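Q: A reviewer asked whether we had any structural model of the full assembly, not just the individual parts. We don't, so I'm hoping you can provide one. Inputs are below.
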Amino acid sequence: MLRRLHSLPGVVLALGLAFVALTGAVLSLEPTIARLSVPTIESGTSVADLASAVAARHGAVETIRVRADGTVTAAYTDGETDGLERIDPKTGAGLGPYVPSATSRFIVDLHRSLLAGDAGRIAVAVAAAAMLVLAISGGALLVTRLGGLGAMFRPIRGTLSERLHGELGRIAVFGLVLSASTGLWMTASTFGLLPESEAAGAVAEASGGTPAPIDRLAALRGVDVGSLRELSFPAAGDPADTFRLRTDAGEATIDPATGERLAFTPATTLERVGRTMEMLHTGRGAWALGLLLGLSSAAVPVFAVTGIAMWFRRRSARPRIARNVAARSADTVILVGSEGNTTWGFAATLHAALTAAGHRVHTAAMNDLSSAHASARRLLILTATWGDGAAPTSAKTFLQRLERFEGRMPVAVLGFGDRTFPHFARFAQDVAARLDAKGFPRLVPMKRIDRRSAQEFAQWGRDLGAALGHDLVLEHVAERPKTQALQLVEREDYGVAVGAPVAILRFCGPTDERTGRPARLPDFEAGDLVGILPPGETMPRFYSLASSTEDGVLEICVRLQPGGLCSTFLHDLEPGERIDAFIRANPTFRPNQGLAPLILIGAGAGIGPLAGFVRANAQGRPVHLYWGGRSPSSDFLYEHELAQHLAERRLTSLSTAFSRDPGDGAYVQDRIAADAHRLRHLILHGAQVLVCGGRDMALAVTHTLEAIVRPVGLDLATLRSEGRYVEDVY
Amino acid sequence: MKLALSALAATAALVAPTLAEARQVTFETTLKNYGGNGAYVVLWVTDAAGKYKGTLWLAGAKSKYWRHLSDWQRASGGAASQVDGITGASIGSGRTLKISLDIADAMIDAGYQIHVDTAVEDGRDNPSEIVVPLATSASGKAVGGRGYVKSFSVTF
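A: Here is a predicted structure for the entire assembly that you could use as a starting point for your response.
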């Protein structure tokens, strides 16, 4: 619901919002420019002295006014000429004619009415209302996603669009709420929708005596230019006319002969609020705020572009379910809990495979659970988790619906999540626990899928097939990859002597036959994944990248898995041979920005991305690498390159452990335990830990590190949630 | 712009009870090319003693800006009831406002004067920038203003 409220007006009004915001951002510079070019109004001069000095230079003065941009102007008549000039607020000296910039007026008109009069003003007001809804709902979405208000400034993970949208959003949300709400107030005021008083202040007749010199008028002497808004002079030749003085406090009539204040109408609360609203919206008189609002507004076009990109990706990720039978006649019901629609893709694959196996399958959102499903023979639930354990959009009402559900058929729950989150696929676990408590038999044990792993999904399919008594092959291609050809240019082989062959493989774009030069590589960074399709296969295998596009090669580190289709294929490759591959961004596994120390921990082929991070460390931030292999003489991957990085200070320290070293056999977690004091100190001072390698190693590392940080009141769950403990585990 | 005003629309004091005692008068106001946003313009009438008698037309719909028509505001009190039904859109730079009203014979050639106040956003307020007699002798003669009015004429 919240997401709908956010994306619907956002997508529909994106262009208009970006336009109004951009013109606003341009206007936000004006208070700063005015501050530099317009003499500032300082307290210490009385309005009487200022008016007297201006009057002395002209035949007649009609008004002295403080304009919205802080310029003080005087309207005067000298004989037959009428004039409007800028004056020095301290001395009353003339500074030349007042000619407002036509460009600025044009942009103001664009901003407030799109050059279309009242209709345009209403359109802009609609945009402002939409902006308010978007800013508030966006803030709420971000709070939910990051897991609470206290977590608002945690790093945001996701695609470039998601990160830009979220990171700029949490900075701009305050300014946008302020701009939109004050803008709405100003529109309401312009259209007379606020009960502001319209009439001028009380009218009073002057005594009719001979006018006194202006600088002697007591009621003007007592007012400082700092609070002046407008002073109107009495009309020449009308002895009953008075001075009319508007200040922040209200409006007064002043006798030109006696200098007495004849009447006073205080400013209403609404007027004061209105002035504050105007100041907050325009930044006039508050240039720093103006710039802040301008920066917030300047981000709106970025929100439009990234927001539409995210919306489009979500939409196109939701596949059409082919041959979806009616709920009541289905023997198998698949229920989907999805936030970004990715889970629907897995459901579609499962639906197709079950249909091919002869089942009558109905697929629906978890929120659709009803008595229509009660007669099904089995229920398969595929669900993602939103934020830190909440239900995703299409499953928000599932648990309430389950309470009223009559059926008790066997169920299988499959949870999709990210193992690096503190609560991996927690909503799926909650659903499974609730189903257990309600007495639903389990068809297969609940299973969790890490980061959309097609391999884990296929494994679950085999288990499900076994329970159903037939083969079930789930070949899921999450986002049908568009591959490109890469050509092996170099390979280094390690570990053969210790029975664990590992190869460092370097690829380039295939050689162009006309130019004889390699084709361009796709964009990637160390830590991203390359998906490789072995010949004749449709399911890609993913490897962590050890290089980035700038290095000019695509480098991976591959351990030969006994019986492994893809690793065998890669180990058999000779330079010049080609593979089909594509890049998948892995923005969660990447060093955080800044110069905080990095602690890199890996074993075996897991050193690949870690070596890439070291290689990219041109700025020389402290980097400590812990790595475990089998034998220093056989599988010390990157030995020479790491030595060079140490010399160049890209790498601060290197600790290696070799399990089959006859004199000093050890694992990487032993080195970590031995360095407990130093690591505790580094983590306390903001270091980020990146772990890459096999699951057993990663588990041993978490146990060791947990024990290291606990004495200082830290735990890995907290570090994970702050993005300071990240893993790439396989 | 030709405006057919009903007798009720204009201020009571200015309008004849029956058409037999009135004649149609056309007021034409052309603005200079001052290049700013639409001008607020008010046409109003004083008697021979200089006392406010009523408003003929106010161009400029948003009452919060009426205070800038300062002579009119001071003379009339500026209440919305003064101009109920006789307001229109503000007048753009270089544009003309032409209105025709039935004016009571008793007011013509009787020392009454037409005042025109103008004001423009970010510009100068021009109270009574035009003051001309409501006299048949001046029929059709255009006069210029000191502020935003290029020419103003009253035609009987």
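A: Points you may want to mention in the reply: Strands of chain B lie at 22-31, 40-46, 52-59, 87-88, 96-104, 113-119, 125-133, 149-155. The mean pLDDT of chain B is 84.
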